[in-house]
Every structure is written in structure tokens, then in C-alpha cells.
């Protein structure tokens, strides 16, 4: 053991003020401050709250309150950004219930304006002979568009064709031009595409598909850019909480838009369903203005951030000057060889298969199998995502609590959260397939728990990409999201093919497929996941004068040999 290591070990044992190492999964997003520390926490080590380094004397923690901090305010802005982004994505799922004429309708119901009144339809019975009245007999809502199930599946999945197209480049875009600029420009396109949706749908299904593809292209920048943004704003020990708040808007977006869409589809202007797109487009425009005014890429760029909070964030991120960080080449060869990256990609793909199946098909399932009315459909479609939103906030705090209280290591915490968020929903989907049309309470409870438990994987594999490679989290997100977007195309199409007649047995087969995908993904992640920063996960270029670490008012300096060895190991 070197003399430096001895000094560090004495400090760790003597006063209990432990420090992060480059091998710890809560290590910092730049290696400028930490890379030469010489600490040696073992692989998959447990990180205790005492291992978070103490603040320097010049930073007063009392002056950095959580609830009034700029990083918390930024997470709230991102929360609403996730909400409106998800709303523009999923509003079609509830609107299409009223847009499209039921293919099972009698041809006698067709009138001269090419719209259909839901009045004539065959009754539905359970295998036990119990009668389930069809909702269309009560709703009497006209569907003006004649799209069969397969075409509907293609239209519902068309958003993801565009979403997939530019995923590989979005991490680079946000790193090169800044998350503020990339997201701001993208949302201008999102607003326009959302507002044009009703007109294009009435002109023809393929024009509407083209608009949905454009919507996907504009929206694909959002989550990779969020990863880039929070790499610059979130201290590692607050990352789960801040990202949990920011991404929780995704779940609330579903919870808000589904009941709102149901109400607007029945009582809104311009025939009902078009008002869904117009109202959501308006709120998206408002958020875009807020984002461009109040968001900044770095704490050092924020005009009203306190000096204490700026120093607090930069101390824990190891960034001396975030505004002048060096641009570094992305280590694509190392990324391709990393089993930790593959574990995230596979888990992300499989989790999104179940997520996109419900996001695009839940209102249709409620209509086909449970025979719910339009307004009731929207309300019950909201409940699972309301629970998901609450559990996303809870899961982030729970993950940080488990780690900081020394209950589980970073890696095992991520695995636990992933198992809860994927195996649990898989088992519930199997049970859901057996629910009949008169078992509303049981089916809705299972749907709610299935979607709600997915919150936990957001603090599992999803946060794990920041654990293993803080310097390139946006790039990893872009790569992972490229593969994880394809289920948005596949899942709606499979559902459309398997549920041609909308029977319970057809939906049961769909849920079996989804359950198998979820469980396989969690198993793969459990076998290959990593919890610590990878050797290539830090910024490589380190100047000798930037390497040092305060230990009990002393600074441990490393000789040139240690620095050269560190740089060689990182580059390798």
C-alpha cells in the first residue's frame, strides 16, 4: 500500500469521514476532482452516508436549502416538461376511441356523412353466460374515421418510427449545443405537430401517420437531453430524487390526459376528439416559453443561483468551471464492449414493451373487454398512471435511502428496483388475462398495480446509466433509447394483430407475450448489470494540477507516476 493510501485509510478509520472513489457508483461526473484520490473501495461496495465527502468550510450547507434551491426548481420545470411531452405522445390513445368507427358495427349504421352512430352491435357474454352490455349502446358517440384494427395499430405506433430515427444523435446534440437549446427547439416542433394532428387525420390516415412520425422526431431529443442536463446539475447522492421528480411528470401526463381526453372527446369543440390535440398543444406552447426563460445548462450560467448552491453542486460533481468543460471524444469502442451497457439496453427494451403496450392500448382494452363508457374509460385509464406518478417519487427517495443507510450496495439496489418494476408487472399481467367483462374492480386493480409497480425500474436500470458512466450518460441514453423505442412500433402492431375481434382470449395472449418479455429483461439485467463507474466512464483528460483531495484540512497530492497510470487505465 502506498503512503497516500495509508493516509486515506487512517482518515477513513479515524474520524468516519469517508470519501467517494472512482470505483463507486456515486462517484462524480467529472474525474477532475476525484480521479487521482487513490481510494480503493471494492467492486460492488456498500456506500454509506458517511462516505459522502464533507463540504469545505467556505460552503455553508444552511445556505443551500433543498426546497428553495435552483436544482429543485429545475426538477419541477422538468416535471411539467415530462408531463406535456407524454401528453402529446399518448393523447391519441384515448382520442382514437372516439375518432374511429367500430368495425363490428352493422353497415346499416353508416350515414351519408360517413360517420357511424354506435347503436347496433352484438351483445357480449362471458363463458359462464353472464351478459355484458356494450358501451356503444349508451354512449351514442359518432366515429367519423374508418380505420381497421391493423391500421390503427400502425398509426398508434407511427410516433415511435420518428422517435427511433434520430435517437443515436440526440445525446451528441445536447452535449454539443446544450440541453436548453435542443429541447426548446424540439418543443416548438412538438407544438406544431400536435396542433396539425386533427386536420391531417381528417385528410387521410397516411398524412396523419406522417405528422405522428414528425412528432416522434421532435420528441426523441427530450430524455437524452435530460440525462445530459442532470449530469451537470445533480449531486450524485441526490440524483435518484432529482431525476425521480423530473421523470415523474411522465406518469402524471398519462394520468391527466386520459380522463381529460375522455371528457373532451365527448363534450369538446370541433366534434370532440380534435379538441384533445388543440388543448394539449396549447399547454405545450406555454411550457416551451417557461423552459426557454428559466432553464440553464449549467449552474454557473444561472443568473440568480446563490454562490453557495453553485459551489455545493460543483464540489460534489468535481467541476471547477462547468461552463468551460473540455469536450471529450465518446469512447464508442468501450461502450460496445461493455456488458453493463448491454444489461441496461435489454432491460430498457423489455420494460418499454410493457409500457408502450399499455400506453397505446389501455383505453382500447377497457372498451373491448370491460365495456367501459368513454368518460369512465378515461377516468379508469388515469388511475394507474396516478399511482405510477406517486410511486415514482417514492421509489427515488427509497433507492437513495437504501443506499445511504448502508442497507444494500448501489448495484443491488438497482437490481432490486428493476425486479420490482418488471417481474411484479409480469406476474400481474398473467392474472389480468383471466379477467372477464363483469370483473371491473379486479381488472382495474390489476392494471393499476401493473403500471404502478413500473415506477421502481426508473430507480433501477434507468438511473444506472448515470451510475456507470456519468460523463457519457446522455450518449448511453441515446443508444439505449434507440433500441428501447422499437417496442413502441412492435407492441401496438402485435396488439392490433392479436386482438382483431377484441375478445378476452385475444387480449390474454397479448398479455402473456408482454409478461414473458418483462421477466426475460429483468433476468438479463440481473446477470450482467454493474454498479460502479466504468473505467471509461470519466472524462479522460486530467491535468496534474487538478488532481487532489482535501482530507482533514490537508491535500493528498499524487505523483506523476500515479497520474500517468490512471490516464492509461482510463484510456484502455
Description of the structure:
GO terms for molecular function: transmembrane transporter activity. This is Major facilitator superfamily (MFS) profile domain-containing protein. It is found in: Membrane. Residues 1-26 are annotated as: Disordered. Its main location: membrane. The radius of gyration is 25 Å and the shape is globular. Strand 2 and strand 3 form a beta hairpin. It is built from 20 helices and six strands. It is an all-alpha fold and 572 residues long. Strands 1-4 form a two-stranded antiparallel ribbon. Strands 2-3 form a two-stranded antiparallel ribbon. Strands 5-6 form a two-stranded antiparallel ribbon. The protein has one domain (70-100, 145-321, 331-528): Growth Hormone, Chain: A (Up-down Bundle), CATH 1.20.1250.20. Helix 5 (167-177) crosses helix 6 (179-203) and helix 13 (339-368) runs antiparallel to helix 17. The model is unreliable at 1-50, 106-123, 320-325 and 540-572 (pLDDT under 50). Helix content is 64%, strand content 2%. It has helices at 3-15, 70-99, 136-139, 149-165, 167-177, 179-203, 205-219, 222-233, 239-267, 273-294, 307-317, 332-337, 339-368, 374-404, 410-432, 440-453, 461-468, 473-498, 504-528, 560-571; strands at 116-117, 124-125, 131-132, 142-143, 549-551, 554-556.
What is the topological layout?
Elements: H1 3-15, H2 70-99, E1 116-117, E2 124-125, E3 131-132, H3 136-139, E4 142-143, H4 149-165, H5 167-177, H6 179-203, H7 205-219, H8 222-233, H9 239-267, H10 273-294, H11 307-317, H12 332-337, H13 339-368, H14 374-404, H15 410-432, H16 440-453, H17 461-468, H18 473-498, H19 504-528, E5 549-551, E6 554-556, H20 560-571
Antiparallel strand pairs: 1-4, 2-3, 5-6
Helix pairs in contact: 2-9, 2-10, 2-13, 4-7, 4-18, 5-6, 5-8, 5-18, 6-7, 6-8, 6-10, 8-18, 9-10, 9-14, 13-14, 13-17, 13-18, 13-19, 14-15, 14-16, 15-16, 15-17, 15-19
Amino acid at each position: 500500500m502506498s503512503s497516500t493510501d495509508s493516509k486515506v485509510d487512517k482518515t477513513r478509520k479515524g474520524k468516519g469521514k469517508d470519501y467517494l472513489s472512482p470505483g463507486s457508483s456515486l462517484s462524480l461526473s467529472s474525474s477532475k476532482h476525484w480521479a487521482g484520490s487513490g481510494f480503493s473501495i471494492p467492486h460492488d461496495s456498500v456506500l454509506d452516508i458517511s462516505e459522502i465527502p464533507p463540504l469545505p468550510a467556505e460552503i455553508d450547507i444552511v445556505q443551500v436549502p433543498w426546497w428553495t434551491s435552483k436544482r429543485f426548481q429545475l426538477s419541477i420545470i422538468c416535471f411539467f416538461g415530462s408531463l406535456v411531452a407524454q401528453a402529446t405522445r399518448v393523447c391519441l390513445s384515448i382520442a382514437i376511441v372516439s375518432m374511429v368507427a367500430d368495425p363490428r358495427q352493422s353497415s346499416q349504421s353508416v350515414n351519408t356523412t360517413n360517420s357511424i352512430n354506435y347503436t347496433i352491435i352484438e351483445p357480449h357474454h362471458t363463458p359462464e353466460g353472464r351478459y355484458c352490455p356494450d358501451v356503444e349502446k349508451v354512449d351514442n358517440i359518432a366515429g367519423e374515421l374508418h380505420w381497421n384494427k391493423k391500421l390503427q395499430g400502425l398509426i398508434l405506433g407511427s410516433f415511435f418510427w420518428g422517435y427511433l430515427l434520430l435517437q443515436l444523435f440526440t445525446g451528441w446534440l445536447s452535449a454539443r449545443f446544450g440541453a436548453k437549446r435542443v429541447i426548446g427547439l424540439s418543443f416548438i416542433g412538438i407544438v406544431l405537430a400536435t396542433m396539425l394532428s386533427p386536420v391531417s387525420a381528417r385528410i387521410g390516415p397516411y398524412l396523419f401517420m406522417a405528422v405522428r412520425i414528425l412528432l416522434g422526431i421532435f420528441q426523441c431529443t427530450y430524455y437524452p437531453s435530460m440525462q445530459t442536463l442532470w449530469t451537470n446539475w445533480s449531486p450524485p447522492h441526490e440524483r435518484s430524487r432529482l431525476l425521480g421528480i423530473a421523470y415523474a411528470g411522465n406518469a402524471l401526463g398519462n394520468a391527466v390526459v386520459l380522463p381529460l381526453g375522455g371528457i373532451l372527446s365527448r363534450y369538446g369543440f370541433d366534434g370532440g376528439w380534435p379538441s384533445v390535440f388543440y388543448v394539449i398543444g396549447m399547454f405545450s406552447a406555454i411550457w416551451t416559453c417557461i423552459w426557454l426563460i428559466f432553464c440553464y445548462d449549467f449552474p454557473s450560467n444561472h443568473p440568480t443561483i446563490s454562490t453557495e448552491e453553485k459551489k455545493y453542486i460543483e464540489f460534489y460533481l468535481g467541476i471547477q468551471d462547468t461552463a468551460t468543460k473540455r469536450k471529450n471524444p465518446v469512447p464508442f469502442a468501450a461502450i460496445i464492449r461493455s456488458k453493463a451497457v448491454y444489461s441496461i439496453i435489454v432491460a430498457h427494451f423489455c420494460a418499454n414493451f410493457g409500457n408502450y403496450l399499455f400506453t397505446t392500448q389501455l383505453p382500447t382494452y377497457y372498451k373491448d373487454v370491460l365495456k367501459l363508457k368513454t368518460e369512465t374509460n378515461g377516468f379508469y385509464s388515469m388511475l394507474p398512471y396516478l399511482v405510477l406518478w406517486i410511486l415514482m417519487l417514492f421509489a427515488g427517495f427509497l433507492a437513495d435511502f437504501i443506499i445511504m443507510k448502508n442497507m444494500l450496495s448501489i448495484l443491488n439496489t438497482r437490481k432490486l428496483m428493476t425486479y420490482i418494476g418488471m417481474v411484479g408487472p409480469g406476474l400481474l399481467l398473467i392474472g389480468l388475462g383471466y379477467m372477464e367483462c363483469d370483473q371491473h374492480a379486479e381488472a382495474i386493480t390489476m392494471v393499476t398495480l401493473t403500471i404502478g409497480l413500473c415506477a421502481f425500474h426508473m430507480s433501477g436500470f434507468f438511473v444506472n446509466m448515470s451510475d456507470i458512466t456519468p460523463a457519457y450518460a446522455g450518449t448511453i441514453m441515446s443508444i439505449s433509447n434507440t433500441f428501447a423505442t422499437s417496442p413502441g412500433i412492435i407492441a401496438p402492431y402485435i396488439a392490433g394483430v392479436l386482438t382483431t375481434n377484441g375478445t378476452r382470449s385475444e387480449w390474454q395472449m397479448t398479455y402473456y407475450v408482454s409478461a414473458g418479455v418483462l421477466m426475460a429483461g429483468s433476468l438479463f439485467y440481473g446477470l450482467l448489470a454493474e454498479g460502479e463507474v466504468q473505467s471509461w466512464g470519466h472524462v479522460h483528460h486530467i491535468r496534474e494540477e487538478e488532481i487532489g483531495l482535501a482530507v482533514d484540512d490537508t491535500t493528498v497530492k499524487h505523483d506523476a507516476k500515479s497520474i500517468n497510470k490512471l490516464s492509461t487505465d482510463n484510456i484502455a
